[in-house]
Structures are given as structure tokens and as C-alpha cells.
Amino acid sequence: MDDLKSKYLGLIADASDEAAIEEVRLTALGKKGEISLAMRELGKMTPEERQVAGPALNAIKDEINSALAAKKTALSDAALDERLRGEWLDVTLPSRGRRTGSIHPISQVTEEITAILADMGFAVAEGPQIESDWYNFDALNIPGHHPARAEMDTFYTHRATGDNRPPHVLRTHTSPVQIRALEAQGAPIRIIAPGRVYRADYDQTHTPMFHQVEGLAIDKGISMANLKWTLEELMSAFFGTRVKTRFRASHFPFTEPSAEVDIQCRWDNGSVTVGEGDDWLEVLGSGMVHPKVLQNAGIDPNEWQGFAFGMGIDRMAMLKYGIPDLRAFFDSDLRWLRHYGFASLDVPTLHGGLSK
Ligand code: DAH
Asked: What does each C-alpha distance from 332 to 151, 197, 202, 344 come to in angstroms?
């Protein structure tokens, strides 16, 4: 009996997994297990023999059962410990950095130009991107037959058949905001209007949607000299260096006289540096606001006068930040955005320095 007992307790101690334990249980206590068979022998014994063997066998059976249960518990505790060791996690570690978005160069440059002009006393005005024919053209002294309408590759909105009102357009420039701001605020006024404009055009330097900023200053004694100073200050502040400007006589229906403005630059093998050299780069249109435009906006041109200008924002961003292809601005390529974008807490500012 003692041999039987130590044999099975030994086997149980050696069992290394649940399957091995089950195996031991069957060999000892299964239907044909050694202990079970021995118990069946009890019937053939004399009552005296049975009285000794019976309780002894039962005791062994109980001991084996509790050894089995204890081993099972020990094995599953060990398995749990093992798993806890493997899945252990240090919750005090710092978290993994998350990728954050960046400020698009167009947004950044819009902010920069706005900050510079706001510092000179210009307030931001806005107008709709879907504009009426009147505001986009007629009020700006661009009549129906004027070639500018065709030249601008205007996108027209669709009207239902039978609706004979003139179609709306996607504004081709920010100039209509001049009229809206004058109607809303009257004179004197100093506003800028940054925003999206649209023309049906697409190549390396043209996209169907692009950005302009309009400027308008109307008062009693404003001249071209004020325009020139404003633009030279704007360019120099924007590029962070003294930038010479060149005013060339030009023509726009909404200004008289009109001037196209070039900035000083230098080209070396395909890349341009602003504020140095003897080349010129055209960056904007400007002039003294045409009396008819003032009249169309309800302002008396005998009493008020002023200047206006319109500038391409995308162009300015390309020049300042060395971006060669305009179309890349609007491709939403994440690698491009990470490269040319600005960290939101580290953008160039007027007070912190506009050139980095
Ligand atoms: N609206 C013109 C354009 O889109 C730019 C422009 C020229 C705006 C002269 C002006 C201006 O305000 O005076 O090409």
C-alpha cells in the first residue's frame, strides 16, 4: 500500500501539465485504474482483511485526489504567473508621440501678410466666393463686352432653363470685396480682403483655385505715394529684407492710373532670391481707384479717393519659401505638407520675426 501511494504521489509531482495529471488520474483512479481494481478485490477478502484494507485504500484514494487537485492549482497558478510576467506593462512610461498636422504655407503666408497690413491699420474684410456678375465685373467697371471677362476664364454657375437672370460666377479676383466693403462701411476705409479666387486654368503656375489679397484705402488726401510706401513696407516686412519695387504703368478697368508692381530679385540657375540683384519679378496690380468704381459703391468721387491693389498669395508663398510648383499646394501630399508646413506653435510672426 505504501509503495502504491508513493508511486502515484511521485507521478503527480513529476507531471508538468494538465494532460499529464489527467493521465495519472486515469492510471490510478480511472475505471481500470490500479486503485479502482484493488478496491474491487475487497469483495474477495475476509471481513477481517477488508476491515484493514478498505480504509487504507480509501485513504490512498483521498490522498491521490487531493494531490491531483493541488497539482492542478499549482500548475494553473504557474501558468498565470508566467502570463503576467509576459504581459507586464509599464504604465509609467511616457506615451508615444502622435503626429500632428501642420499649418499650410498658404495659411501661414496669408497670416503674415494680414499681420503686416493690420499693423499699418488695414482691417480684414470678406466677401462670398460665389459672386454676382455685378460685383465681380460691372461694379468694377468691367462691362459685358470687356475682354477681361473672357481673359479671366470665368467659371459660371448654372441657371435653370428659363431663368434669365445673369448667372453667378466663382469670383475671379478679390476685387469685388472693395465694392462690398465700401457699401457696408462707406469712406474713409482701409481694408484688406484675403481669400480664394477661381479661374479655369491649369499648369505649373496656374491652378483653378488660388488665393489673392486685395487692399483698399480710401480717404481725402490719398495719392500714389501712399500706395508706393505701403507696398514697399509690405514687401520688405514680408521678405525680411529691404526690397526695391518698380512701378510700371499698366491698365486695369477699376483703377486710373494703374500700375503693375515688380520686386527686385536675382535669378541663379532657376532659383530666385528676392531683395537682391537687378532682375524684376511682377507680383501685383494696383492703382488709384477709378471714380466710376467709387460711384458704383455709393461713394462720391469728388470727395473721396484712394488706392487699391491685388496680389497673388500663392505666388508670394512660392517666392518666400522656395516652393517650385504651384500645383503641389493643393495635392494634399502628406510628405509635402510635413516638409513645407509650419508647426502650429512655431510659426513666423510679426513680433517674433517673419523670416526664419
Ligand atoms: N483684380 C486684379 C486681378 O485679379 C488685380 C488687381 C489689380 C487688383 C489692380 C486691384 C488693382 O485692386 O487695383 O488680376
From this structure: 29, 19, 17, 18
In terms of phi and psi (left: phi > 0; alpha: psi -120 to 50; beta: otherwise), the region of 214 is: beta
Distance in angstroms (rounded) separating the CA atoms of residues 15 and 83: 20
Instruction: Specify the ligand 1 atom closest to the Cα of 140.
Output: 1
Q: How far is the CA of 35 from the centre of ligand 1 (A)?
A: 106
Q: Are residues 77 and 154 in the same domain?
A: no
CA-to-CA separations, 65 to 73, 75, 79, 267, in angstroms, rounded: 12, 15, 21, 94
Are 81 and 113 contained in the same domain?
no
Please tell me the distance between residue 285's alpha carbon and the centre of ligand 1 in angstroms: 5
Nearest-CA residue for atom 7 of ligand 1: 285
- My answer on whether 57 and 129 are in the same domain is no
**DSSP-derived 3-state class of residue 221:** coil
Please tell me whether residues 269 and 194 are part of one structural domain: yes
Please enumerate in sequence order all residues whose Cβ is within 8 A of that of 198, keeping only pairs 6 or more positions apart, or say none.
129, 155, 170, 171, 172, 208, 209, 210
Which residue's CA is minimally distant from atom 6 of ligand 1?
310
Cell numbers that stand for 159 in this block: 441657371
194 and 288 co-located in one domain = yes
Residue among 227, 282, 309 to mutate when testing ligand 1 (max atoms within 8 A of CB): 309
Interval between CA 83 and ligand 1 midpoint (Å): 72
| Test site for ligand 1: of 254, 260, 313, most ligand atoms within 8 A of the Cβ | 254
**Beta strand residue intervals within 108-227, DSSP E:** 123-124, 130-131, 169-170, 189-198, 209-219
pTM score of the predicted model: 0.74
Give me the domain span that covers residue 35: 2-85
Q: 294, 292, 141: which is closest to 219 by C-alpha? A: 294
Same domain, 178 and 258: yes
- Domain-located, residue 186: yes
Q: List per-block mean pLDDT (blocks of 10 residues) for the chain, which spans 356 residues.
A: 87 90 91 89 89 89 92 91 90 88 95 96 98 95 81 82 87 97 98 97 89 98 97 96 96 97 91 91 96 98 98 95 90 94 84 72
35 within some domain:
yes
Same domain, 110 and 79: no
